[in-house]
Design a protein that fits this description.
- The complex is a heterodimer.
- The longest helix of chain A is centred in the C-terminal third of the chain and has 34 residues.
- Helices cover 84% and strands 0% of the residues of chain A.
- Chain A is mainly α.
- Chain A has a single domain, classed as MetI-like (MetI-like fold).
- Chain A is globular and about 70 Å long.
- Chain B is an alpha/beta fold.
- Chain B folds into 2 domains: 195 residues, Rossmann fold (3-Layer(aba) Sandwich), CATH 3.40.50.300; 67 residues, CBS domain Like, CATH 3.90.1280.20.
- Helices cover 37% and strands 22% of the residues of chain B.
- In chain B, the strands form 3 sheets. Chain B has a 6-stranded mixed beta sheet, with helices on both faces. In chain B, strands 2-1-4-5 form a 4-stranded antiparallel beta sheet. A 4-stranded mixed beta sheet of chain B has the order 11-14-13-12.
- In chain B, helix 14 crosses helix 15.
- Chain B is globular.
- The chains are: A mainly alpha, B alpha/beta.
- Chain A: Keywords: Cell membrane, Membrane, Transmembrane, Transmembrane helix, Transport.
- Chain A: It is found in: Cell membrane.
- Chain A: It is a multi-pass membrane protein.
Chain lengths: 295, 355
Amino acid sequence: MDWLTEFPAMDRSSLTAIKKTIDLGFRDFTRAYGDAFETALSPVKWFMFWMEDLLTDSPWILVLLAIAGIAYAASRSIKIAGSVAIILLLVGYFGMWEDTMSTIAMTIVATLLAIVVGIPIGILMARSDRVQAIFNPILDVMQTMPSFVYLVPVIMLLGIGRVPGLIAVMVYAIPPIIRLTNLGIRLVDKDVLEAADAFGSSSWQRLKNVQMPLALPTIMAGVNQTIMMALAMVVVAAMIGVPGLGLGILRSINNQYFTLGMFNGLAIVGIAIIFDRVSQAYGKRLQKHLEVVHG
Amino acid sequence: MADENKPGIGISIRNLYKIFGSDPAAYVDMVKGGMSKTELNEKHSHVLGLKDINIDMPGGAIQVVMGLSGSGKSTLIRHINRLIDPTAGEVIVGEDDVVKMNEKELREFRRHKTAMVFQKFALLPHRTVMENTVYGLELQGVPRKKQEEEAQRWITRVGLEGFEDNYPNQLSGGMQQRVGLARALTNDAPILLMDEAFSALDPLIRMDMQSVLLDLQKEIRKTIVFITHDLDEALRLGDRIAILRDGEVVQQGTKQEIVLKPADEYISNFVREVNRGRVITVDMVMTPVSGEGSGPRIKTGSVLETAAKKMTEQSVSHAVVIDEDGKPIGSLNIQDVIAAMVTPVDHTMVDDEAA
C-alpha cells in the first residue's frame, strides 16, 4: 500500500537524469552563446552605465531640478512636481541619494528596453489572432512565475552584475506593456478604422495615424504597470549584484537591520509614487481630447 | 476644380452576390440555381447578404439605395470601394472592375476616385476638425499647404468656419457630420459614398444637411451613392432610387416611377404615406400638346403641389406646361392634378383607404 501514502513519483535516477540533461544542455548553450549575448548587449550596457553616471555624478541639485522639471512637463501640475521634489529631498537627507539614483537609472533603462521590445510584440499580437494565441499563454506563465526564478537563467548566461540584472528586470516587467498594447489596438473603434481604409490608408498609415494614437492611453497604462513591476524587480535583482536601494534591503535581511530595511523600503515607495503619479498624469493628459465633450 | 464640367463617373453593378459564412464560394451556384435565403441559412448556415444585384448608377447624379435594416444596403455600398469583397459579380466604376483590382490599385482607387461619409461619422477623435478634413489629401501625399487651403475651402463651405481647431467631441452630431462631409469633399473624388450619412441626426438637422448636400451637388456634380432607410429622404435627394429588400433589388427607377407604380405590396406600403404632391411632377399627368394653350404657365419638372397652388390661386382649371425655353409642351387639367395627388397607390389597385 506504499503508493497510497506516498506519491508514485518518477524514480530518483531518471529524475536526476532529466535535470542533468537540461542543465547540461543549457550550460552548453551558455558556453556557446554567452559571449555572443554579452557582445549583443554591449550597447545596452553602455546606455545603462551612462544613465547611472548621469544621475549619480551630476550635482544633486541639477538632478533634482531636472527630475522635478520632467515631472512638471509630463503632468503640467505644480502639485505633482512639488511632491516629487520633496520626496527626493527627503530621500537625500536620509543618506540614500546615490542608491536611489542608481535604482531610478536601472528602472528607467529597464522600462525603456521593455517598451522598445514590448510594443512591437504587442502590435504583432494585435494584427494576428494566431500570434496572440501563441503569446498569451507565454505571458500568463511569465506573470505567474515567481520573480526569483528569472534570476537563474540570466546568471548562467551572463553571470553576475548590472546587465544580467537589467535583463531579468526587463523580462519580468515586459508582460503588461505587451498585453496592453495588444488590447489598446484591438479596442480601436472599427468605424474609425473603416474610415481610414475607405480613404486608402496603407497598413502602416493605419497603424501610425489611427491605431497607435487611439491606443496610446491604454499603452500608457501598460507603461505605468511595467514601471511598477520593474521597480519591484530591481529590489530582487540586488541578489545578483545590482546596486541601489535593493542592496540595502538585502543587507538588512541578512543582518536584521530593521531601520535600514525600513528606510530603503520607504525610499522605494517614494520612487514608486513619483513614477506612478507622473506617468498616470501624462496618460490622462493624452486623453484630453476625449474629455471635453459637447454639452 | 478641373472635373467640374465633366460628367461624373458612372458605376455599374452587375450580377453581384454576397454570401457570408465560412465557405461562401461553394454556395454561389446553388443560390444562382434558386436556393432560397432561408434554406441557405437553415441547412448550410450561410447568410445570403446580396442576391443578383444589377444597378446602373449614372455619372453626376444622386443614386439612392433604400431599404430597411438588414436589407443589405450598407453591404452594397461597401462593395463599391470594396471594403467588403463580393462573392461573385462585377462592380464597374468608369472603365475598371473594382473586384479585379489588386491591393495597390485598390488603395489608389480609394484615394483618388472615392470618398465616403459614414453613419456614425467615424472622425479621428484625436485630430482637430482641420486635421480630420485634410486626412484624404494627406494620404494622397499632397503638400501640406495645399491640403490646408483645400480643406479650409470646404470647412467654410459646410459652415464650420471658426471650428478648425476643435476636436470632434466638442461638436454636436450635426456639426460632426459636416466635418465628415468636408473630409469627403476635400478628397475631391468623383464618387461620393454616403452610408446613412444623415440617419443619426435629429429630423431638423437632417433636413438642413439634405439641403446642404443638394446645394453642393448643384456645383460639384459628383456621382453620389446615398444609402438611407427613410423614404422621404430618398425622394428628396434621389435622382434615381433603388429599393432593396432581403438582399434583392425589388424596384429601381426615378422617384415618380416608384411613387406612381410601386412594384409590389412592400413598396406600396412604403409610398402610401408619401406626400405625392411634392414628388410627382407635372410632366407625369399632362397631356402633350403642340400648339399654344391657355392658362398660367408652369415650368416642366415642377411638382403637382406647385401647379395646384398656382391654378387655385388664379381660379382656373387649365394650365400650360412649358419647357426650359418657355415653349408649351403639354396641358394640365386641375382634376387630373388633384386626382394624381390623392389617389392612393397600390400595386393591386385595391382602395382600402377609401372604405
